[in-house]
Specification:
It is a single chain. With about 160 residues, this protein is α+β, with helices and mostly antiparallel strands. It has four helices and eight strands. The radius of gyration is 22 Å and the shape is elongated.
């Protein structure tokens, strides 16, 4: 089985860009047109408040995806190895990670849930030693993809 959440990642990144364009265009319209007078007369708010509201909404949207640590995730269990590739959707220096675990050495997995995040940690067994891999976020996966991931990992788990 093989899957990734590329469509979700593209949608999130496109919405960030579109939202930024809308905010900047709205701010530009405030200064180029008489929209400022209309807002003051009908709603009683100044252009500064409108700008602050628009920018606050954009930054809240942007920071939300940083806090929940949405990531691109590729999973494959075809062949003799389990392959997991992921990277967070951060604007600066997103660390790309990948690991392959032979199916007969896969030991267990854990789901770590917090208020905002949902991550998976996988373990590999080398003889009597158990190695822990870095956690990866599953927040960007659809329910079906999460179910497939958990089922596949449970099938290979030795614990």
């Amino acid at each position: 089985m093989k899957f990734d959440n590329e469509n979700t990642v593209v949608r999130i990144q496109a919405l960030k860009t579109i939202f930024a364009i809308i905010v900047l265009s709205s701010i530009g319209l405030l200064y180029v047109t008489n929209l400022e007078l209309y807002l003051k007369n009908s709603w009683g708010i100044s252009d500064v408040w409108v700008i602050l509201i628009l920018l606050s909404a954009y930054f809240c949207y942007y920071i939300y995806y940083l806090v929940i640590n949405t990531s691109y995730l590729f999973f494959s269990d075809e062949g003799l190895k389990i392959t997991i590739r992921f990277y967070p959707l951060r604007p600066i220096n997103p660390k790309k990670s990948a690991f392959e675990i032979p199916k007969n050495q896969f030991y267990k997995f854990e789901v770590v849930k917090t208020m905002f995040r949902e991550e998976v940690v996988v373990y590999q067994k080398f003889g009597s030693k158990v190695s822990k891999y870095p956690s990866f976020s599953i927040k960007g996966l659809k329910k079906e993809q999460k179910a497939k991931l958990f089922l596949a990992l449970k099938n290979y788990s030795q614990e």
